[in-house]
Design goal:
Helices cover 38% and strands 12% of the residues. By secondary structure, it is α/β, with parallel strands linked by helices. The chain has a single domain, classed as Aldolase class I (TIM Barrel, Alpha-Beta Barrel), CATH 3.20.20.70. The two termini are 41 Å apart. Bound molecules: phosphoenolpyruvate and cobalt (II) ion.
Length: 460
C-alpha cells in the first residue's frame, strides 16, 4: 500500500478538503467582509499544524483497543473554551482533574485509559437560536470565541475573522503548555501529589481517592522492583485533544497532507467530532469528515433512527476500520432506555466497527425558573448507569464517557456529594455556555463508573 498519494481502497471518490462547500453547511456564521475572511484563512493555512499525523494514528489504534474492551476512553473538558481562560491555572487544573479521574478508572477498571481533552480548539459552538433578545434588543447569538464574543453588544456579537487566527494561537499555547507539563513529569504516576487540587482537604471523597493513589503507587513500585529499574512508561502519559469541528472553513485550513502518508489529516486536533445539530447525512459536516483520516466522533441524539445510524457508519467508515468511528450517544436519562437499544441492535446486525461512548451531559440540560441553565448530577449518573446496562443487554460494550467538566470550583450542576442546591448555583457559575461538573462532582462520577462497571462484571 503506498504511503503517499491516493489510497487504492480507502480514498473517497469525489472528496477534497473543500468538497463540503457544495453541501448545506448549517451553524456557520455570516462574515460581513469576505476578503477579511479570505485573508485570515490564508494566514491559518500558513501556520504550523497543532498535532501530528503520528499522534493521530496512534490515538486511532488506542480507540480500536477501547472498542475491543482493552482500554477505556475518558473524554472531557469545557463546553466551550474561551480566550480569556487560556491561562496556566485553568489549563493545569483541567489536566489535574482528568488525571485524577483516569487514576480512579485505571485502578477500578484495571484497564489503561485513553485520555482525551475537550481542549486546545474547543472554541466553536452550535446554537439552537440564531439570535438572542435582552430587554427588547436582539443581537446574533454568541457562537464561541473563534467566531464572536459573549458580551451583549453589536460589536462583540459580530463574526470577526481575526478570531480564527487568535483561536489557532490559543490552541497552540494550550497545546504547548500541556505538552510541556507532561514531558516535564507532571503526569508521573510516582507523583500524583502534583495533581492535587485544593479540594482534597475537605472532600468526602478524599480518603477513597488517596487510598487508590497509594495502591497504584505500590503496584508501580512492585513492578519496578521486578523489572530492576524505573519503568519509563509510568512517568509519562499520552494526552490527546478533541473539539467539535463545527467551523468548516477553519478545519479545512488545517487539513493537510504529510510526507510518507496517504490521504488527508485534520491537524487542528487529534479527534474531531460532529455535533448533534450538524450530523445530517447529506450535510456539509458529514461530507468533510468522510475524507479525513483522523479518528472521528459523532454525537447521536434521541431523534436518530437505526437506519440513519447504519448509513452514517457506512458513509463515515466505508472500510469498517477499527478505531475510526465513535458514536457518542447523548439521549437524556428519561429517553435512553427507549432510544438506545434499537440503535445498538442495528449496528450490531450490520457488523459495523464502532466505539460506543456515552455523553450523559447534553441530554440532561434544563433551565431553572430564574433562567439559569443547569444539569442534575442524579440525571447524569442515571443516564450513565443505564448506558452500562443497556449495552450489556444488547451485547455491545460501552467503551468510554464524554463529559463537560472543569478543574475549577464552580457551581453549575446541581447535586453531587455536597448536594449543591439551586440557591448555590449563583455562587460560582462561570460557564458562558453549558453547565460543567466541578472537580468534586467529576471525581464522584469516575467512582460511580467504576462501581457500575464492577457490578456489571459480577452479573455478566
Ligand atoms: C457539546 O458537546 O458541547 C454539544 C453542543 O453537544 P451536542 O452536539 O451533543 O448537543
Ligand atoms: Co456543551
Amino acid at each position: 500500500m503506498p504511503a503517499t498519494g491516493p489510497h487504492p481502497v480507502l480514498e473517497h471518490p469525489g472528496w477534497s478538503p473543500d468538497s463540503w462547500q457544495a453541501r448545506r453547511a448549517t451553524q456557520q456564521p455570516v462574515y460581513a467582509n469576505a476578503s477579511a475572511l479570505a485573508s485570515a484563512l490564508a494566514e491559518v493555512r500558513q501556520l504550523p499544524p497543532l498535532v501530528t499525523s503520528w499522534e493521530v494514528l496512534a490515538l486511532k489504534r488506542q480507540l480500536a483497543e477501547a472498542a475491543a474492551g482493552r482500554r477505556f476512553l475518558l473524554q472531557g473538558g469545557d463546553c466551550a473554551e474561551s480566550f480569556a481562560d487560556c491561562d496556566s491555572g485553568t489549563i493545569s487544573n483541567r489536566l489535574k482533574v482528568l488525571l485524577q479521574m483516569s487514576v480512579v478508572l485505571i485502578h477500578g477498571l484495571k484497564l489503561p485509559v485513553v485520555r482525551v481533552g475537550r481542549f486546545a480548539g474547543q472554541y466553536a459552538k452550535p446554537r439552537s437560536a440564531e439570535t438572542e433578545t435582552r430587554d427588547g434588543v436582539t443581537l446574533p447569538s454568541y457562537r464561541g470565541d473563534i467566531i464572536n464574543g459573549p458580551g451583549f453588544s453589536a460589536a462583540e456579537r459580530e463574526a470577526d475573522p481575526r478570531r480564527l487566527v487568535r483561536a489557532h494561537a490559543c490552541s497552540a499555547m494550550t497545546m504547548n503548555f500541556v505538552r510541556a507539563l507532561i514531558d516535564g513529569g507532571f503526569a508521573d504516576l510516582h507523583h500524583p501529589e502534583y495533581w492535587e487540587l485544593g479540594w482534597l482537604e475537605h472532600s468526602p471523597r478524599a480518603r477513597e481517592y488517596r487510598e487508590m493513589v497509594a495502591s497504584i503507587g505500590e503496584a508501580v513500585r512492585f513492578m519496578e522492583t521486578l523489572a530492576g529499574e524505573p519503568i519509563g512508561s509510568f512517568s509519562r502519559v499520552d494526552f490527546y485533544t478533541s473539539h467539535e469541528a463545527l467551523l468548516l472553513h477553519y478545519e479545512q485550513a488545517l487539513t493537510r497532507q504529510v510526507p510518507r502518508q496517504w490521504g488527508w489529516f485534520n491537524l487542528s486536533t487529534h479527534y474531531p467530532w460532529i455535533g448533534m445539530r450538524t450530523a445530517d447525512l447529506d450535510g456539509a459536516h458529514v461530507e468533510y469528515f468522510r475524507g479525513i483520516r483522523n479518528p472521528i466522533g459523532i454525537k447521536i441524539g434521541p431523534s436518530v433512527t437505526p437506519d440513519q445510524l447504519v448509513e452514517l457508519a457506512r458513509v463515515l467508515n466505508p472500510a469498517n476500520e477499527p478505531g475510526r468511528l465513535t458514536f457518542i450517544h447523548r439521549m437524556g436519562a428519561a429517553k435512553i432506555a427507549d432510544r438506545l437499544p434499537p440503535l445498538l441492535h442495528a449496528i450490531r446486525r450490520e457488523g459495523a466497527e464502532v466505539l460506543w461512548c456515552c455523553d450523559p451531559m447534553h441530554g440532561n440540560t434544563e433551565s431553572l425558573e430564574n433562567g439559569i441553565k443547569t444539569r442534575r448530577f442524579d440525571n447524569i449518573a442515571a443516564e450513565l448507569e443505564q448506558a452500562f446496562d443497556l449495552h450489556a443487554a444488547a451485547g455491545t460494550r460501552l467503551g468510554g464517557v464524554h463529559l463537560e467538566l472543569t478543574g475549577e470550583d464552580v457551581t453549575e450542576c446541581l447535586g453531587g456529594a455536597r448536594a449543591l442546591a439551586a440557591d448555590d448555583l449563583q455562587r460560582a457559575y462561570r460557564s458562558t455556555v453549558d453547565p460543567r461538573l466541578n472537580y468534586e462532582q467529576s471525581l464522584e462520577l469516575a467512582m460511580l463508573i467504576v462501581r457500575k462497571a464492577r457490578e456489571r462484571a459480577r452479573t455478566d
